Amino acid sequence: MTQKYHAQIYVTLRPSVLDPAGTAVKSGLSHLGYTNVDQVRIGKYVEVTLTADDETAARQQLDRICDELLANPVIENYRFDLTSV
Amino acid sequence: MTQKYHAQIYVTLRPSVLDPAGTAVKSGLSHLGYTNVDQVRIGKYVEVTLTADDETAARQQLDRICDELLANPVIENYRFDLTSV
Fold first, then answer.
1. Could you tell me if A57 and A7 are in contact, meaning their C-beta atoms sit under 8 angstroms apart?
2. CATH number, domain A3-84
3. Helix (H) or strand (E) holding B22
4. Contact B40/A34, CB-based, under 8 Å?
5. Fewest Cβ atoms closer than 10 Å to its Cβ: which of A1, B28, B36, B74?
């Protein structure tokens, strides 16, 4: 029996990798008057709905999906929350 | 006294708005053999560190930051989690 799952995937740059887009947003916020913002880091957020036999299978598949397509493991980390729906 | 806060901001397309990037990822996953993926929606994930007087002030400022710069309220929703660090 298959079950439907909803995954919220967060892809972030590794801490050692520079984030020029985040720096640009921080600069923009500073120009808008938000000078109390210390740091901005920009990542990706992906919501995926999929069917799988069980939660273990869903997690294994999501790991492969992230490694192969959604994240660049050289410069990015990912994590995800999984809920059955 | 000011306190340092860490915010995790999620910007997502409104449900009624088409997501061509998400559709492209779903198609890519299908070509890679992941035919059990039903839906993919792509959003933005932003981590912000800021100092504020208290949590209420931090939340108000983050609402303004999201409305003014990070999200397009016509087509996007946002939400954020706030933790003091």
1. no
2. 3.30.1280.10
3. helix B20-31
4. no
5. A1
Query: How high is the ipTM of this complex?
Result: 0.88
Q: In what order do the strands lie in the sheet with B76-84?
A: A76-84, A3-13, A37-52, B37-52, B3-13, B76-84
Please name the residue of chain A whose CA is at the shortest distance from the CA of residue B27.
Answer: A69
Which one of B29, B39, B42 has the shortest CB-CB distance to A65? B29
SS (H, E, C) A25-73: HHHHHHHCCCCCEEEEEEEEEEEEEEEECCHHHHHHHHHHHHHHHHCCC
Rounded Cα gap, residues A28 and B52, in angstroms: 18
Structure tokens at B54: 């208290």
CB contact under 8 A, A47 and B41: yes
Domain borders along chain A are 3-84
Give pLDDT tens digits along chain B (85 positions): 789 999 999 999 999 999 999 999 999 999 999 999 999 999 999 999 999 999 999 999 999 999 999 999 999 999 999 999 9
